[in-house]
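Reviewer 2 asked us to include a model.

Predict the structure of this chain.
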Amino acid sequence: MKLAAPSDVDDLLAPLVAFRRDLHAYPELGFAETRTAGLVAAALHALGMEVHAGIGGTGVVGVLRAGGSDRRIALRADMDALPIEEETGLPYSSRNRGVFHGCGHDGHVAMLLGAARHLARTRRFDGTVNFIFQPAEEGLAGARAMIADGLFERFPADQVYALHNWPDLPAGTAMTRPGPIMAAADKFEIAVEGRGGNAAQPHKTPDAILAASELVAQLHTIVSRRIPPSASAVLSVTRIEGGHAHNVLPAAVRLLGTVRSFDPAIRDRIEDSVRQIVEGVAVASGTKTTLTYNRYYPVTRNDPEAAGEALAAASCACCHATVAPEPAFTSEDFAFMLEAKKGAYLWLGQGREGVNAPLHHPSYDFNDDIIGHGIRWHVALAERLLSV
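Predicted model (structure tokens):
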């Protein structure tokens, strides 16, 4: 079987870099990717594909067939940006104030579109490739919305794959692993209510600030004291709000935070512990507490065989491909697709010497030099899994 040679996609790179930078200049938040989705749909139409839009909100699917096989795979890219003010100073910086492609989804779109262009012109595969351009990955569960809208019933797939650029890895490298690769993500919000009063007379009112402080301290003992040392989890209180004057005890304080884990039993234990601590602090402080606990993304769990295919395809894409030694505590809504279908998720290195901004940082900059690697990885997957 002949796989895509490195030179096969070189002529696609310059127009795709320009396309990616245009997306970067006009970023859109989750479920509002109307311009992005329109450009993607138009590009797929130009390739002569069967194109479907408006799936799960603003999702787009392009269908490409070759040969007579009934084998089918799906390749997915996310399209949404983040609510961050860009600080890169690039000539193609965001024109949309407070919205920024700070996670490289513009690059993911360009890579998958490049793979679609290449496969449409070569058709060195036998079966069907469904190109999924997904909205709202950043905390809004666009993958779940597409699945609920009949994604895999309308566009059946035996396997589904996705990648994410990874600044911690050098460009030209790739990693994935069997089993968990990204954590389950939960978020919690705790409302603490006292009555408020004069700060000089704290004995006359339950102190919501003090109760909230106790909550912060106790919540951060859960991982170290309530789950086994061999388990992996993170709990972080990330926001605390309350009060408006130096001499007034506020009537209400609000806490927000996140939990990341890989084991369902550990996830249950952490949530139970949060609830116990919140109830206990309420009793001890005389405040009223209300907990909202939301398990919003499951574990991103690779099928072992599919993870092997992902690494083999990365090697074909001229990458140094290795098994990741451990999963990341970041989360990813591609997890919903991997719950529905066999598949795998890959980290594609994009690190450059002297350019160290991480994902979701105001100075993050996607490395256009890896677009070719991403195209070749998608192409290699299609040609391996749907070999002629």
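Residues 1-6 have pLDDT under 50 and may be disordered. The chain has two domains: 6-180+299-385, 184-297. We have added this to the supplementary material.
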